[in-house]
Specification:
alpha+beta, Yope Regulator, Chain: A, six-stranded antiparallel sheet, 7 helices
């Protein structure tokens, strides 16, 4: 039996149907909640979902006009089988799932890992630049300002106690960059009053970095093999990071 040709109007409708979009979102507290506690920010959680419209519209839906929690979309891709890729990522990350589409990102490498996954296995995907909602921008600025204040009030005095007086505060990255012997280092302010130390070197190996910096961990396998990034201490107390720096600066290391 010969199949009937669908009406031209239906073909046009299918042609112009919106592409599903895969997105990664990051919840954060708004500046309104920070009125009650100045050092309150959201824990390291990411949301992996899809939307049939533009991510900006979905971001506004997630924001909600009355919601005290602001949700910022940090990455979005279209021109891929979004629902299938979302399901695959949810299965891969099931052991870190908190609830539904929300996942724990304690090492704060989920965005890089998902980006590398899509670049490798779905090169057909197109990344979309997300224009942030004004409320998201305000919440982000509040979090960044609070983190920068912590860098000046908490981190820099501890570095100066160690004799580290040459540094550069990275406002956009909410942290401070400095050098110790053969290493370039970055302490970034993270959630809940905690920090991450990232370690680079052109002369030292990852194995040497792990030995020189107590409590450090190997960088995720998603990183480039020729990258100078050697190790890091993720989402830790400032005391832990300072103790690790003391370990590296001791005479028994890399003299």
């Amino acid at each position: 039996m010969e199949r009937a040709t669908p009406p031209l109007s239906n073909l046009k409708l299918r042609k112009h149907m919106p592409q599903n979009t895969l997105y990664l979102a990051e919840p954060m507290f708004s500046e309104k909640l920070q009125r009650f506690e100045s050092d309150t920010v959201f824990p390291p959680i990411k949301k992996i979902g899809i939307t049939s419209g533009m991510p900006q519209r979905r971001e506004k839906e997630l924001l909600g006009t009355m919601s005290p929690v602001k949700v910022k979309i940090v990455k979005a891709w279209t021109h891929l089988a979004a629902r299938e890729v979302e399901s695959m990522l949810h299965n891969i990350l099931d052991n870190t799932r908190l609830d539904g589409e929300y996942f724990w990102d304690g090492n704060e490498n989920l965005v890089d890992a998902v980006t590398s996954f899509i670049e490798k296995y779905h090169p057909e995907a197109t990344e979309i630049t997300v224009q942030e909602d004004a409320d998201v921008q305000a919440a982000t600025q509040a979090v960044n300002a609070n983190s920068e204040k912590r860098i000046y009030s908490e981190v820099l005095p501890r570095l100066e106690e160690l004799g580290i007086t040459e540094y550069h505060v990275t406002k956009g990255e909410r942290g401070v960059r400095f050098s110790v012997k053969d290493y370039r280092l970055h302490i970034g302010a993270r959630t809940g009053g905690r920090y991450t130390l990232t370690i680079w070197s052109n002369n030292r190996t990852s194995e040497e970095a792990l030995e020189d910096f107590r409590y450090s961990q190997e960088i995720s396998s998603t990183g480039s093999e020729d990258s100078p990034r050697r190790a890091r201490i993720p989402v830790s107390s400032l005391d832990t990071i300072i103790e690790s720096l003391k370990n590296c600066l001791s005479p028994s290391h890399i003299d």
